[in-house]
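Action item from last week, closing it out:
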Amino acid sequence: MNERSSETGYWIAFTRIPRIGTMRVARLQAYFGTMAEAWRAGPSDLRIAGLDQATVSSIVEERANIDPLNELDLVRKAGVKAYTWNDPEYPARLKEIDDKPPVLFVRGDLVPDDEWAVAVVGTRMASPYGRQEAEQFSAGLARQGITVVSGLARGIDGVAHRTALATGGRTIAVLACGLDIIYPPEHVKLATEISQRGALVSEYPLGTKPRADYFPRRNRILSGISLGVLVIEGSEKSGALITARAALDQNREVFALPGEINRVQSEGPNKLIQKGEAKLVRCTEDILEELNLTMTAVAPQLELREVTVDDPTEASLLKVLTNQPLYIDDVQRASGLPIASVSSALALLELKGLVRQVGPMSFIKAREVTSHHRS
């Protein structure tokens, strides 16, 4: 077992301890350097690291019954992968949110193309209209190479996942329990199909049963791994609206399908539109245009004319950018240029049609170019 794998075992072990979440893991990592050192630390050092006494007591009490290496072994035997926020496999977009899960458990595969993802969410008590529109939008997104994200729940979620698979696309399901427990149980077959042609993900360790308070927590992951969230149907207090609120907090785009004003299922999306918190959409193209994704799926097939750039800063950025989304801070680090120069040059390149923004401060190269520096 290599050092990285061993360290992952300690991260998993901390997910077993109550009161240990994003902020406390960050404090432990900052103070001790590794979670293995944090696991072995005494009460006084844990207090110095910034943990309160109740959390320290929880760690000391619980870790006596937890074997980190055994935790890692159990995950592997279950066919599950565990990625910490330090791992390159951890979704880049999810790293952007304030409350990112320290560990993401995955059954199936996360691939680079999943950076182009849209969450489709809605009520469990979907109307025929809601189901029909969920099919239309999910199929349209999947055909454009967009990964459809949802929560594996009854109703709209199940329709979104099934349609994406039937269309030949990818889909990701975010669970509010351990990946060895499928809820609702009637979606066991669907979950298996998703894991074979997409991924099941969760922040909860194996054996964790679903609880009412876990579902609102998981919704921030739904929006966190996505470019935007589409609300099909839902009451004002539905989980779909919680996902929409999380998306707004994370600076993600929110879209809503309008519905009949006298239907309970229409309350949520109609109110989002009325308050200006969501963009009214009528078809998939409305979402793609808003996210600047209209060329995503077809770009590899286009025969784009070659263009040149004269500015050395622009040329440097075009060498860094590819057809995979890159956050502006990563562009700056890779280019070695000042952030102000990077920001202004990206804006100019976007105006020239050479670069596209495909999410909050994330960019791709829109066409092939050659650099031509004036002497």
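Closing note: The chain has three domains: 3-74, 108-290, 299-371.
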